[in-house]
Amino acid sequence: MINLFTTESKPIPITKKMVKEAYRKVNSNQGSVGVDEENLREFQEDLLSNLYKIWNRMSSGSYFAQPVKEELCLTKTDEEFHKEE
């Protein structure tokens, strides 16, 4: 009989190097505040611990990213289009 209420955790091959590289990319483009309202400066106050926590959860398969904060940005083309309406 199959037990439908149990799941097997399978580790995801996420390396510490991958997490550090992702952080470097966010830092290089001055990453914005997320839905948790934590900005880059606050994250950097305990950088090694924060990166470790993310890596630990991702590599164990227990990390679920929070929703992305959406911000609309109008381009010059969008502005010109709206003026014509």
Describe this structure in words.
Helix 1 (16-28) packs across helix 3 (47-60). The chain has helices at 16-28, 40-44, 47-60, 76-84. 48% of the residues lie in helices and 0% in strands. It is extended and about 55 Å long. The longest helix is centred in the middle third of the chain and has 14 residues, at 47-60. It has 85 residues and is mostly helical. It is built from four helices and no strands.
Task: Fill in the keyword field for this structure.
mainly alpha; single chain
The major sheet is characterized as: none
Overall radius of gyration: 19 Å
Spans with pLDDT under 50 lasting ≥5 residues? none
Mean pLDDT, to the nearest integer, reads 76
**Chain oligomer state:** single chain
- Globular, elongated, flat, extended or rod-shaped: what is the shape? extended
Helix coverage percent: 40-55%
Which structural class do the helices and strands define? mainly alpha
Beta-strand content: under 5%
Note the gap between the termini: 64 Å
Put simply, the count of helices is 4
Beta strand count: 0
Give the helices and strands as they follow along the chain: HHHH
